[in-house]
Each structure stands twice: as C-alpha cells, then as structure tokens.
Amino acid sequence: MSTKKHTKYTIPGAQHSTRGFAIAAPPGDGRAAAFRVGSRATSGGGWVSWFAPVAWLQRSALWLLVGILASTAGASSAGRANPFFAFDNGVGREAKWTAEQQAETLARLGFAGIGYTGVTDLAARQAAFRAKGLKIFNLYVAVYVDRPVAYDPELTAALPQLAGTGTVLWLTVQGRSPNDDRAVALVRELADAASKHGVKIALYPHKGFFIATAEDALRVLPRIDRSNVGLTINLCHELAAGHADRMDAIVQACAKHLTLVSINGADRTGGWPELIRPLGEGNFDVARFLTSLDRIGYTGPIGLQCYNLKTPPEEHLAKSIATWKSDLPHQR
Fold first, then answer.
1. 37 lies in the same domain as 107
2. 119 in helix, strand or coil?
C-alpha cells in the first residue's frame, strides 16, 4: 500500500468573501493524477468537491486548468445578477449633494447607479454618472388624473435625452377619479411619446395614490396596452397595504409585466419608520421576497428605498450594500 501523502496547495487570488478554495494533488511520476477543487460556504454547508482526471500534463498546464476552474467557481458565487441602485432620497438629496458627490459615493460603495426624482439638471446628472461608469436607472415622475395640466411639460421635453440610455420613467399616477379612463388615457399618451425615443415606462405604485399597489397597476395595464409600459413592485408600499403575507403571490401575478423592483429592510407592519429601514433591519423576510423574484426569473434592476432614514447617507448605504452582498440569497 502506498504511504505517499497528498500535497495541499492554495490558489493565489482565489479567495472570495463567502467561499474558500483548495487543491489537493498527489505527487507521482505523472502517469495518472487527480485533483480536487473544494468550496465550502461560510454558513457551514460543508465541502462540495469534484474530481477531474489529469493525464500526462505538465505542471504549467495543470495550474492553468486549476485557475480556470477556480475562476468559474468564483463567478458562480459572485452574487445576484440584478443591478442594485439607490434612490436619490438616500444619497444626499435633502443635503443638496451635487451629482458628482452622489456618483462618487455610490461608485465607491459598489452601487450600480441611482434613481432620480424628476428631470431637473438631467444632462449634468447624466455626465456625472457616466464619468463614474454608473447608470441613472429611472426618473421618478407623476401624472395627475384630476388636474387640467396632467404632467410637467418638461417631462416630454426630456425624452430625447433618454434615448439609448436605458433610463426608465418611473411613473406615479396620482389624484382621484371615479374610474380608470383618465389614467389609461394619460399613460397611453406618455407611452406613445416615450416610444419614439425607445424609452420605457414602469408604473410606480405608491400608498395613497390612484395606483397604490402592484395589483392596481395590473388592473389598468391591459387597457393601457402599450408594449413599453410595465410595472414596479415596491416592497414598502405593498407592506403598507397589508400585503406582507401575499408577496409570493403578487410576484407571480406580476411576472410578465415586471420592469423594476424596490426593496429595503422593513418590519411586517407599521408606519414609514418601520416599513423603510436599511437592509438587514426589520422582521420582514426580504430574502424570501428575493427568492420569489428568482423563481420567476427576474434579473432586472432592484432599487434601494431610503426615504426618511435618519442616519448619514454613507452609513446607511454602506450597511445596506453590505447586506446585499453577503446576507441575501445569491442567484445560481
């Protein structure tokens, strides 16, 4: 019986925040060899191993193959496919941060970009985020079903600037009306104007508005009947509507129309201080909500709602993105 010991090697640069890698390779005359790549999740899930035969390989070729496998394994645990952006209400909006300050902060923390309110200073904002390799994912805008002037004329004037950017109009529908007719007509009007520039619209449900929940948006979408109009699931507004126990079903119902999603830490019930918290706080199961999105194959952007958080922006943003990267379910 051979008493030869296997030699353990480590792979330079193959460490990951949630996984480690090691190689065990038996020395010998090179006629037959095997190597094992092991990966163990820090949650204690144990080693996952696989073996591949290596015959008559030079050492350089072996290490090349090992490097490829380590890189592949690392990519599979690299995180969620969804781009993760922050609402501007958590990135110094009230403190009047410049677009350059906002872009620099988000780039340094690892966010993919921002969601802005309105179309003010759009060109300057676009330039600031482009310079950091980040994206403006959406512009939060409104139509009013009970006003003679239903929306800001600057909105349609800004549409040419959005062509080719992928920026979505995050559209709230506000006001009071006895039926859906006015809402449908207004959204169609904007959708037709936006489509000329390749711009999409995502209805933004908001507590107390004409469209208050994702199911309200689902009600009007068939009548709007525009291919560039979808909807958003806003976690905090669904919780405000008492939907904590229905989120799996809501995700399933919205699957075909889902354009954007927003999340945050939250309790299952309460007012805005309880329903909008940094990720990692609160008793609502955000991980389960994200798993529901995974089941329907949603890989689109996810935004971080930060309304009325009292801690400094860099503090709560850092807490949330750390939770996003390490504690929430990763797609496979």
1. no
2. coil
d(CA 215, CA 177): 17
Is the Cβ–Cβ distance between 234 and 250 less than 8 Å? no
Q: Is 226 helix (H, G, I), strand (E, B) or coil?
A: coil
Q: Which two tokens stand for residue 281?
A: 């706080």
Pair 58, 108 in one domain:
no
Q: How far apart are CA 103 and CA 55, in angstroms?
A: 51
**How do residues 101-110 score in pLDDT, each as one tens digit?**
999 999 999 9
In angstroms and rounded to an integer, the radius of gyration of the C-alpha atoms of the chain is 24
Q: What mean pLDDT do residues 192-202 have?
A: 98
Say yes or no: 149 and 181 in one domain.
yes
Tokens (6 digits) for 24 = 């065990």
Query: What is the arithmetic mean of pLDDT over 180-195?
Result: 98
Angle between helices 99-109 and 313-326 (to 10 degrees): 30
Supply the range of the domain harboring residue 11. Answer: 7-76
Last residue of a domain, one of 34, 51, 76: 76
Residue spans of beta strands (DSSP E) within the chain: 7-9, 19-25, 33-41, 47-54, 84-87, 113-117, 135-144, 168-174, 201-203, 229-234, 258-263, 302-304
How confident is the model over 11-57, as pLDDT tens digits?
333 333 333 333 333 333 333 333 333 333 333 344 333 333 333 33
Beta strands 201-203; 135-144: pairing state = unpaired
pLDDT at 81: 87
Share of residues in the chain with pLDDT > 70 (%): 75
